[in-house]
Protein 1
Amino acid sequence: LALGLLEYNNDWEAIQKRFLPCKSTHQIFVRQKNRSSAKATDNPVK
């Protein structure tokens, strides 16, 4: 997910095709939202 965000920014369909084909674009969006929230612990997406 972190690599996809670096490469494609918020192009969820491109991230899905390249990195996470088994996940829906909505699942990828929600995962990114949760990982970058203020309450999340330090992680590569943040």
Note: The chain is about 55% helix and 0% strand.
Protein 2
Amino acid sequence: MAAEIGDQHPDAQIELIPSSGGRFEVLLDGRAIFQKSKIGRHAKRGEILGLLDKAR
């Protein structure tokens, strides 16, 4: 997923932070745009890219 984001948004600074408990979050400028814990599922294919495009 990080590679897809980097391909579509070459200016993005991507940081992968290991965590526990199955957490998966995507933040843009410190603001959460996807949180597995709130939605109850992992992101679908292309969903994160769509959210990033929408948020920019």
Note: The mean pLDDT is 92.
Protein 3
Amino acid sequence: METNARNQSKKTVKKVYTPFPSPQPESQINKELATGEYFLKASQKKRQKMEAIKAKQAEAPTKRQEERNKAFIPPKEKPVVKPKEASTETKIDVAAIKGKIQKAKKRKLGALTELYRGVLAKVETW
């Protein structure tokens, strides 16, 4: 029997029963008492806020400059593969190739293959 995914009912996982409620989050006053800010004067609180803002402002230009400099960093280049010079390094045995061509003509195999035509053209240019 085939069933569609749409027709299948999703099984719900029951959450674990906890008889106690979750703990209440700390109030703002309790947080200030823990850090010691509660007993500071208004001017001292204001000074601390200004110092925090100035520290953030000092970091912002350096981050901005780093983002701008990312455009000027060149991507990693792949190593350059030098092309091989096939004709100058490998010497072709001209006499052997001419002999093969002559044998092919004697056997009357028909026209020369493309390989022999290309080699013959190179031999004639020498």
Note: The mean pLDDT is 82.
